[in-house]
Amino acid sequence: MKIYAISGLGADERVFKYLTLKGDLIPLQWLKPETNESLEAYALRMAEKVNQAEPFILLGVSFGGLIAVEMSKVLQPKLTILISSVETKDELSTVYRLLGQTKLVKWIPYPLFDPPRMLANWVFGAKNKALLSDILSDTDLKFAKWAINALLTWQNTSKLTTPSLKIGGTNDKLLPPQGDTILIENGAHFMIVDKAAEISQIINERLETM
User: Fold this and answer.
1) Which residues make Cβ contacts (< 8 Å) with residue 52, sequence separation at least 6?
2) Which end of the chain is more exposed for a tag (fewer CB within 10 A), N or C?
3) At residue 139, does pLDDT exceed 90?
């Protein structure tokens, strides 16, 4: 079965190369956001990349999980997998929601969305620091600014109505796991890479039941 995968903010298919899944993983490339485009509208455009003529699964990591949630509303995936992500805006921390209300992000200069590597390594909890650094260096800062603002102002309050699987890390500083989430012990926000074997096992066990 095809697994359409959406990476985290500014990241690309490199974060998926350590997974060993029993399916055909197809990374979706990010689109360029339109002026003042909402997360919901952006997800509708991303949904056009999915072949609905055959059964499929959506997999979203971090910010990509939010996109997967919105795509699930207009598609009919057999399963939506969220890794290091959230299902509704209520699962975001109070700090994020307050920041979203201030709309300060729109006034922050683009260069400030490229964090110092030492800080990024700590926040993401990355063991593979070289890969994280490469990904951050390749990130489109205009996209990063749009995505952060879209995350902070996300309005979704609806739980997924299609089958879902949520996997979160106990040490995730950015999006701590909420609700009915399978926990990865000592998993940080970059665990899609650092804990790929454990994540693959959880997903494959679920796939075997489908």
Assistant:
1) 75, 76
2) C
3) no
Instruction: Evaluate the CA torsion angle 40, 52, 7, 1 in order and state its sign.
Output: positive
- 66, 151 Cβ separation under 8 angstroms: yes
Q: Is the dihedral of CA 6, 172, 88, 196 positive or negative?
A: positive
| pLDDT tens-digit readout, 56-104 | 999 999 999 999 999 999 999 999 999 999 999 999 887 777 776 777 7
Task: Name the token pair of 166.
Answer: 């949520």
Q: How far is CA 149 from CA 3, 18, 63, 144, 156, in A?
A: 27, 29, 11, 9, 14
Could you give the CA distance from residue 41 to residue 95 in angstroms, rounded to a whole number? 25
Query: CB neighbours (10 Å) of residue 143?
Result: 16
Dist. CA 184–CA 153, nearest whole Å: 28
Distance CA 86, CA 82 (A): 7
Q: What is the DSSP string of 14-33?
A: GGGTT---SSEEEEPPPPPP
Helix (H) or strand (E) run with residue 141 in it? helix 141-152
Q: Which two tokens stand for residue 122?
A: 């700590």
